[in-house]
Design brief:
Blueprint: H1 3-26, H2 33-54, E1 62-66, E2 69-73, H3 81-122, H4 127-131, H5 133-141
Antiparallel strand pairs: 1-2
Length: 143
Amino acid sequence: MNDVNRASAPALQDRFGRRVAARLDQGLAELPHEVSERLRAARVQAVARRKVASLQPVGARTVTVSGGQAALGGGEEPVSLWQRIASALPLLVLAAGLVTIHVIQNERRAREVADVDAALLIDDLPPAAYADPGFVQFLKSGE
């Protein structure tokens, strides 16, 4: 096909569609109400399918519409090893980040506990003094 035929093909289809619609509209007044409603519903469905087909991405093979949801089918191409690795990589990075945060938090907590223990051992008071209720009262009184 040359470029002229490619450009005129959609125009020819549109013109043919308009002629068919005009012919159908001529006989619409003679049809019963039930038949005209079924035709109207069929037109609405056809327009909806046309809109979904025109919105189909270039790489997608199929668009499945069900209950207000649309799903793209990737076609029959097999998924390569690199694509599988690329899709799993973010999950692995997230897991590694969570493990790293957990290890860092544990180290900080252990360091804080070690600092408190060192302060208790170095202090002039014995550790048992801190557990004595009288010592707490002594500290609150400020003497």
